[in-house]
């Protein structure tokens, strides 16, 4: 549902092909944390001052970065706090690392926000880190600066998934531009080519390491050993990264316009029907609440069977099942989204 390479974007691929043939690609010089020029280019993607190449680590994907951080921060049996609802990426990674996930609640009262009492109550002596996702997938909620301050006050390392950070729908001065703004906490902020440049096939991601200098240096020293064990990022894509990021602006703009337009079209199609579009601040997905006449899995099956429309049932993301929801991709072709939106409206009215 969120694969940007198969949803009809009409990008000129010639500059991309040229960028992927950089000089030096035939030489292998393993650099565990990443080639210096690529790390510098990735550092410039963070909307926070003072992020330098020395504070950036490259990996093949954010999934791999998560895995490295689970092993860096946890022993078997330790716990990591994770938001719920959210994308279920971490479940298998945590299982492989022998780490337990403890959910904290994202509450909805017309807008999504961190349920701070739930977060603070989730901390135990075995807690080793807290994950924040901004914008969250699929809720589209963004972390507020006050929420970030309260997260940092827990005294745990923060793992901030910011892969959709470039896709906020509007400016908001209360929003944290990046978790690297946190004071006093060790922070790992994740991004990557998959969403930032709509290039998931090139397999390159980055993490910025922030926080007190002594903690950040120790973390980077340990991460270098982890990264050296894998040496997973290909040389050509690292050498190409500065140019790939130069090319990324129009691609992001097209994706953002599609998501904003798609959300508007979805709202118009559902107006006057029993289906409700939940509020969101960013991202590539929308949540639609449907009548409680059947479970979300049955809604998803009905839409696929009777209308040829593919949605995800909300329970896949731990959305509450008492009020059934489905998750709709906004990155799909506008024509396909229009067909799907009409079908959801019609089905909810039947």
Task: Characterize the structure shown.
This protein is α/β, with parallel strands linked by helices and 350 residues long. The chain folds into 2 domains: 11-246, Type I PLP-dependent aspartate aminotransferase-like (Major domain) (Aspartate Aminotransferase, domain 2, 3-Layer(aba) Sandwich); 248-349, Alpha-Beta Complex (Aspartate Aminotransferase, domain 1). Helix content is 38%, strand content 17%. The strands form 2 sheets. The chain has an 8-stranded mixed sheet, sandwiched between helices. A 4-stranded antiparallel sheet has the order 9-10-12-11, covered by helices on one side. The longest helix is centred in the last third of the chain and has 36 residues, at 235-270. The radius of gyration is 20 Å and the shape is globular. The chain starts with 13 loop residues before the first helix and ends with a helix.
Helix percentage range: 25-40%
Main β-sheet description: 8 strands, mixed
Helix segment tally:
11
Q: Tell me the CATH superfamily of the largest domain.
A: Type I PLP-dependent aspartate aminotransferase-like (Major domain)
Structural class of the secondary elements?
Answer: alpha/beta
Features:
alpha/beta, Aspartate Aminotransferase, domain 2, Aspartate Aminotransferase, domain 1, eight-stranded mixed beta sheet, 17% strand
